[in-house]
Amino acid sequence: MKILTKNLRHQHGIGFIGLIFIFAVAAVVLLLGLKLVPVYLELFSVKKVMAAMAQGEEVKSGTVTDIRKSFDRRAVIDNIQAVTAADLEITKDAGETVVVATWQHRVALFTGYTLLVDFSVSTKDG
After folding, report:
1. Which residues pair with 91 in a beta bridge?
2. Which of 77, 75, 106, 76 is nearest to 88 (CA)?
3. How would you list the strands of the sheet with 113-122, edge to edge?
């Protein structure tokens, strides 16, 4: 009995069950990353388009139709599919035209589990 207790004290490292648990957690994190990266890449594309529109003349002095056409042209170039020109909310705030795009994206994670991500980007953001 003394030999068995002495050997247990000198054992180090992780057990098989612990290793399986770590692999399972890593797999879930990897899956989340792979599913969410395209969604956030599209968000950054929309932000880039909105920032470019904020500097353009269409937003500063154009009509609502000009703003929507400008967004459509830029969205085709950047392959933006989550937001269309019809989804844009165009308002005036203190004499300045503000364009806001708000949308939701559903990401299927597992059977029966869906992640809903809400996005909102504005020309006033920066």
Report:
1. 98
2. 75
3. 88-93, 96-110, 113-122
